[in-house]
Design brief:
This protein starts with a helix and ends with a helix. It is elongated, with a radius of gyration of 16 Å. The longest helix has 23 residues. It has 167 residues and is mostly helical. The protein contains nine helices and no strands.
């Protein structure tokens, strides 16, 4: 029987490993690509590979992954791994002032009108105010710059989620 969470992940049948990874990043090629790299010799190697694969995703797949993310300030409901993780990651919004929450709702609407997708930011470790400042800054981006920033945020979120699988 494998000893560590990494050993267990490496030993999982491919379908189960992919299922676990899909909760970290819903892009269609992400889970099969990362799973194909097993066995990983360290958690950091797995996290690094997950981030690398995420950064290399074509925009169509990033868009698919974005559809699985809640808006900042929205609380995903239900018992799914994605919903639980989203609630934990967005814990900085739970204590936000009503004015910050309202500004986030307005900013999310403006962002989605401008860029056509949900505003994605690595929320873990950030306060609501920090996320709001980033939202306003990124609203000044051109579409190409914003796609690059969104992809980087997806990679960071994915890395944290993959690390969490093995914690």
């Amino acid at each position: 029987m494998p000893d560590s969470p990494l050993d267990r992940f490496n030993a999982e049948p491919a379908a189960r490993a992919e299922e676990l990874l899909r909760a970290c990043n819903a892009a269609p090629s992400f889970a099969p690509t990362v799973t194909a790299g097993r066995p990983y010799d360290s958690t950091q190697a797995l996290v690094s590979r997950a981030e690398e694969v995420s950064r290399a995703l074509p925009w169509t797949e990033v868009s698919t992954a974005l559809a699985a993310h809640a808006r900042i300030g929205d609380r995903m409901q239900g018992p799914s791994a994605e919903a639980r993780t989203s609630r934990e990651e967005q814990s900085g919004m739970t204590t936000a002032a009503d004015s910050v929450r309202a500004a986030m709702v307005d900013g999310n609407r403006d962002y989605e009108e401008q860029f056509g997708h949900v505003f994605l930011i690595r929320a873990a470790g950030r306060s609501a105010e920090e996320m709001l400042v980033e939202l306003h800054r990124r609203l000044r981006n051109d579409p190409e710059t914003e796609r690059a920033e969104t992809t980087e945020q997806l990679a960071q979120i994915t890395g944290l989620r993959v690390a969490g699988l093995l914690a």
